[in-house]
Structures are given as C-alpha cells and as structure tokens.
C-alpha cells in the first residue's frame, strides 16, 4: 500500500523536483549555444566589413574632399549672394581680346574694357576699333540670357565742354553709346541698361597716369536672369 501511495505522489505537480527542473536546464543550454553562434556570426561579419573598409580606403580622401567642397559651397551661398552663372568665368577667360578683362563679383561676371579701345579722348562716339571690340563680344552676349548693365567710368580729371559739362555726362553718354550699339546688334533692349558713374568708383589711385588710365573704362556686367 505504501508503494502505491508513493507512485501516486510522483504523478502530482511538484512530486519530483529534479524531473520538473530538468527541462529548464536543457533550454538554457540550447539558448547559450544560440547566443554563442550569434556572437560568432557577428564576429565573422565584422571581419568581412573590415576587409571591405580596407579595400575602399583609397576612396575616402575623395569622398572627404567632395564633402568639404559641398560644405564650402553651402557656406559661400549662406555668406553672400554668388551668381549661379559663375561657370561663365572659366569659359570666358583667355577668350577676350587684348584690353578686355573678365572678373567675377557678387553682381555677376564683368567684362571690363579700357576706354581707349572704344572712344577717343573726351568723346562718347564709338570708334571703328571700338565697334570691332564690341563685335568680338557679341557671341558671348547673345548666348547669355540675363540682364546686361553697361557702366561708364572716368578718372577724376574735370571735363567742361558744351556737350559734357562734367564727367557724369561723359560716363553716361559712353554707356548709352555702347547700349545703342548692342541694341542694333539684336541684343534685346529689355536686357540692357546704361549707367554712368563718373569718377565715383575708381579701381586705382588717380594720383598717377597709370591709375587714371585704369579708372577710365566701360564695364559690361552680366547679371543672372531673374527666372530660372
């Protein structure tokens, strides 16, 4: 009878503590094995990535330079207005005739022409050579679809003639003469404007002949088109 009672107690929950916990031990063993396998796979994958990193290490300087260039460009746009047509500058450099220089500023690309290439002293009528100089620029001006400001500049030597009471009239008349020529060469007048600055924006000191010669000039400023 006691043996039968003991056999029934084995069937009750908790009747055999060792057998009740044996499945848990087996589960933990399997879980440990899975974690070990997972760690091993991660380790192998990490080594593979390291090999690829060494393989493409030679490209990292290029990527870094690109990132720096992009950041610099973004900073330049944030710091000040830069013309989007700045690509004109390398296209035009080296293509200008003697006496015409190309510069870039916040307002656009500037074609700077020495005044003696266009006009006789104290005059505002284009010379034959002046027309040829402007003719050499027509291809560039026609291809550009933005606004073109023609700006006349003088030195600080006063002028007093019946036609030009001051350098204001002379600089404005020279700018208008260039605008009229360009208009006659199929440059739309809606894209043109004439401005006379007299001697208010010198490039060099007017104390020397060379400085005064540099200040006497006509500039064609190529502004960015309003709609892009």
Automatic annotation (TrEMBL):
* GO CC annotation terms, alphabetical: plasma membrane
Q: Which coarse location class describes where this protein primarily resides? A: membrane
Membrane topology term:
Single-pass membrane protein
Which residues are the signal sequence here? none
Q: State the InterPro entries in the record.
A: Bact_OuterMem_StrucFunc, MotB-like_N_dom, OmpA-like, OmpA-like_sf
What are the UniProt keywords, alphabetically? Cell membrane, Cell projection, Cilium, Flagellum, Membrane, Transmembrane, Transmembrane helix
Q: Which Pfam families match?
A: MotB_plug, OmpA
Domain of life of the native organism: Bacteria
Q: Domain OmpA-like: where? A: 106-226
Membrane spanning residue stretches: 24-45
Q: Name the Gene3D superfamilies on file.
A: OmpA-like domain
- List locations, semicolon-separated: Cell membrane
Hey, which family's this protein in?
A: Belongs to the MotB family.
Stated name of the protein: Flagellar motor protein MotB
User: What organism is recorded for this protein?
Assistant: Halomonas salipaludis
Starting at the broadest rank, the lineage of the source organism is: Bacteria, Pseudomonadati, Pseudomonadota, Gammaproteobacteria, Oceanospirillales
